[in-house]
Model the fold of this input.
Amino acid sequence: MIKKFPISIRQLADQRAFTLIELLVAFSVFVVLALFTTQSFFSILQGRSKTEVSRIVRQEADYVVSVMERNLRAALAITSCSSTSISYMDFDGNSAAFSCQNVGGSDSYMASGSARLTTSSVAITSCSFTCSPPTNPSQVTLSFTVKQSQPAAGPRETAEISVSSQVQLRNQ
Done:
């Protein structure tokens, strides 16, 4: 006796299903969207990290410039000036100095007397002080470059900022 199936062969042929090609196309689209989303996410994270590094380096450079400008403007006189240090008489008549220490080295920093003006998170890669006129100067030009000292997670996450400022002494 022949058993009858509840569905005929003709009815099976009429039913539609996903073909292998349709499944591969759908999977490919899903993979492309997942890759795009992942790449965007990592790009956002790298941008955030780069912004944070740049902010820290800029903040350090701005602090050094503000301290040096404020003290040099109020100075009574510049007592000596070289390419990496400035000695001056402050407004109270005390001797004070700014200098670049270990420029280009792994522990380079800007100093005020014996105190550090920059933290260990940044390094000074170049530094130059120019006094004009050379005798009894009334104007000082500060130029230096600050970069992060710790290695970054990647080359895109490094920051280096060059700063230049001219300071006119008030008491000259």
Observations:
- The beta strands are 77-81, 85-89, 95-101, 109-112, 115-116, 122-132, 139-148, 160-168.
- The mean pLDDT is 85.
- The longest strand covers residues 122-132.
